[in-house]
Amino acid sequence: MAGKGIGYTLSLLVLLVSVTFGVRIKDIATVEGYRQNFLVGYGLVVGLKGTGDGKAVFNTVLSIANLLKRFGVPVEPRRLTVKNVAAVMVTAKVPSYLEPGMSFDVEVSSIGDAKSLEGGTLILTPLRGPDGEIYALAQGQVIVGGYEARGRGARQVKNVPTVGRIPNGGILERSFPFRFNDKKEISILLDYPDFTTAKRVQDAINRAFGQRLAKAVSPSVVKVRVPEGRNLVDFIASVENIEISPDAVAKVVIDSRSGVVLFGGNVSIEPVAVAVGSLVVEIKERPEVSQPPPLSPGETKVVPRTEVKVKEEKKRIVELRGATVSELVNALNKLGATPREIIQVLQAIKAAGALHAKLEVL
Fold first, then answer.
1. What is the DSSP code (8-state) at residue 235?
2. Which residue in 124, 125, 107 sits closest to 38, CA to CA?
3. At 210, which CATH number?
4. Are strands 134-141 and 121-128 parallel, antiparallel or unpaired?
5. I need a surface site. Which of 190, 232, 296, 351 has the fewest CB within 10 A?
6. Among 153, 148, 137, 155, CA closest to 90
7. What is the count of structural domains for the chain?
8. Is this prediction's pTM over 0.85?
9. In this predicted structure, what is the pLDDT of residue 207?
10. Residue 27 lies in a domain
11. What is the pLDDT, as a whole number, of residue 1?
């Protein structure tokens, strides 16, 4: 039997170097109220080519019967065949700044046993907000990015044919309860809460306008007073384009499953000695046949012969003094360390208290 070496190899090592640079406030934060609003509705997609819901999905049958009844065509639900119709949930994300009459995209997803929504048309569907009120209407041709083809003995599916999209298929009928132009104060919400970044945003805004307009009230919120007589849209545009240098936490992220190791460039390391070794265990099976002498009462048997070899490569101990992450990587590469060994070294350095960063293992 051929021998096998027991070891580990990981695939990727990534170094993220942190450089101080200016980014716009709009790239790291959003203005309160400038948000997405979620709408949802229940509707029917018609015109399918035999790929709709089956009779077992009784809510589809009842929906068709109720729809026809509203048009003055009463029918018995149990007499309906619905294979060309599918019950769907219609969802949408609508920005707060949209005004009544403006359109937006909607998503359509089957909730029955339909095979595909390809070629279907969503009939008029009201979309409701979390408060239960109707804010928009949706209707239109469903565009599907996948397909399903099947025969008696074969079936082929690409992507998800039971989920589709209707570009500009929704129309807003009423505005959301947010009065933008009447605000005397705006709140800037940081995407990644941080005390230092919040203070830098506050100081940058006050410095740009020459007065104390901004105040950081938490690591995620900076309140900004709108100057008297200033147009709100113009003021927010000016605030959004102010550049700051956001702060970042020193962190090392390790994905032990995929072998990805991410280093922040601001990670520092105290003086520490590092030794990296590689252990390979090789096991070989060499079965032998034991043959008894001629005319003897003995039996022919297969005798196992196992050969075990353990090989450990010798490595030098390297001392790192005040190393940055790049210096650590260079030193470990000179030692010939594998990504798994780098992970073990980082965990050991962190346990010794010499790694000044948060170590996160995924």
1. H
2. 107
3. 3.30.70
4. antiparallel
5. 296
6. 137
7. 3
8. no
9. 92
10. no
11. 41
